[in-house]
Amino acid sequence: MKHKKGFTILEMIIVLTIIALIFLLTIPNIQQKKEVIDNKGCEALVEVVNAQILLYEIETLETPSSMQQLISKGYVKESQARCPDGEKITIVGGEAKASK
């Protein structure tokens, strides 16, 4: 009797079930990590904007009242007005803050 090489349907179902379980266990963890990364990215961007506010104050001897002032003078880019998670960066009392 000659044996054919290959996988049986049962073996394939078992392997696919194991792969599906691995995905189900790892996907929520990946989503949590994305939230942490977005939060840290936003915190870092706020610190960058705060540094640019300080530079603006040193060079112009006045405090910027809006992000648009920093953007128009070239201290930050338009893309730096929003965090990776979509929060808008505003200047309140001479300090950058992220808000939704």
Protein described:
Its main location: membrane. Belongs to the ComGC family. It is a single-pass membrane protein. Keywords: Cell membrane, Membrane, Methylation, Transmembrane, Transmembrane helix. It comes from Breznakia blatticola. This protein has 2 helices and 2 strands; from the N terminus they run ααββ. The chain is mainly α and 100 residues long. The chain has one domain (11-99). The chain has a two-stranded antiparallel sheet with strand order 1-2. The longest helix has 52 residues, at 9-60. It is rod-shaped, with a radius of gyration of 25 Å.
Structure in a nutshell:
By secondary structure, the protein is mainly alpha-helical.
Blueprint (SSEs and pairs):
Elements: H1 9-60, H2 67-72, E1 88-92, E2 95-99
Antiparallel strand pairs: 1-2
Average pLDDT? 90
Q: Terminal Cα separation, in Å?
A: 71 Å
Helix content: 55-70%
How many separate domains? 1
Strand order of the largest sheet: 1-2
Largest sheet: 2 strands, antiparallel
Q: What low-confidence regions span 5 or more consecutive residues with pLDDT below 50? A: none
Principal-axes geometry comes out as: rod-shaped
Helix-strand category: mainly alpha
Number of strands: 2
Order of helices and strands: HHEE
User: Counting H and I runs of at least 4 residues, what is the number of helices?
Assistant: 2
Rg over C-alpha atoms, rounded to the nearest angstrom:
25 Å
- Which range does the strand content fall in? 5-15%
